[in-house]
Amino acid sequence: MGEETSPRKRREDERSIQSNEPKVTNxxxxxxxxxxxxxxxxTIIGSGIFISPKSVLRNTGTVGPCLIIWVACGILATLGALxxxxxxxxxxxxxxxxxxxxxxxxxxxxxxxxxxxxxxMKPSSFVIICLSFSEYVCAAFYSxxxxxxxxVKCLAAAAILVITTVNAxxxxxxxxxxxxxxxxxxxxxxxxxxxxxxxxxxxxxxxFENSFVGTPASVGGISLAFYNGLWAYNGWHQxxxxxxxxxxxxxxxxxxxxxxxxxxxxxxxxxxxSYFTVMTPTELLQSQAVAVTxxxxxxxxxxxxxxxxxxxxxxxxxxxxxxxAGRLIYVAGRExxxxxxxxxxxxxxxxxxxxxxxxxxxxxxxxxxGDINSLINxxxxxxxxxxxxxxxxxxxxxxxxxxRERPIxxxxxxxxxxxxxxxxxxxxxxxxxxxxxxxxxxxxxLSGLIFYFLFVYCELGWAQKISKPVTMYLQMLxxxxxxxxxxx
Length: 488
Prior knowledge:
With 488 residues, the chain is mainly alpha-helical. It has helices at 2-20, 33-44, 48-60, 63-90, 97-105, 107-139, 149-169, 171-201, 219-233, 249-278, 281-286, 290-298, 305-334, 353-366, 372-400, 413-432, 436-457, 461-478, and strands at 345-346, 480-481.
């Protein structure tokens, strides 16, 4: 009897010890391997695979090159994630690219990344996903016409409000929401893949005949196809944004990447094959919502299932995006590169509440323009600029920080290859099809230098006088305090 009750007694003793230990006012390590995989898979499989098939096909022209682009994007995402796995296990700080740029090149590149991410890249990504969610929900009610733009934007704003509130309230709640929606989205992925494979086995292969015959794609078209394909894979580095909240990051970070990204790649390729078993390239390009059109043709009268689960998929990706992006703002504030109050932690909930609320407010502003395709191109240009810089930093630190412990060390040709592809993705669309938006992007990134020298480097006295009472008021309003240092 004593042997039977000893495990229970031991668990009770452990629980008692844990409950008596005071929690440090800091972000807690609450994300395990399964939740880490769910964050990667759930953030990647969002709106991209339900929007980007049209854009990738439009820029490649035919089915064959379209499928090759999807495979190539999966390989590139995997290689990039392996580089980030080395960085994340060497520098176990949250914030994604931010701490890696800080370690490799110093504060100015890190600040420019946090400035651009906080003001452009992260909010625009969040908005794109929420607008996609809104379009799919509205498509169920406006089956014969395009839904009104005001309705789409209002629903997207409501989604941002709900997701921001959930993540500000509780890390655990945000994690549970992420796990649930990841499971839900795998249901719709499985439905689409199985339906397509059944049709393929029945001989629906006419859209794959002469799949390379057609107008050859230009270099600019291929780069834009890569942009839209990689947008669907965006999220492969999201776990690096919450490294400090990951249990055993040296093991769980690379393992979640190795499991999650190949799984997504296989799903994406099979989903695209399924789309082409039902729709011709012309029909796919004319579809307002590719997955909904697929469901109408295959699952009728139960076709309502598709927009419902696609909505689940996109809202799950938006939740993962908010969960991780708030940590970048939090870390930048902690390093003194943003308002200090953005690095404060809720006393009651142990979440970076000010950072998450600020992120939600910026994203809401981005709903006003709301053109998804232009936002994707703008977002991808700036994103791959910083991806390339970060992986250059990995190569630089191989020589400048030789003594640093590296639990994972990728072959040097992998970061070099990713750097070359990053340069191609940044320069090719500018050279082949110059547009003002690229210049605006560069000018906006460089404009961060003005704010850096005025408010970070020089620390103007009048700015400090204004920020102190504002910080104090926000502290009392939101019940937040500076994070404590974890005792060694």
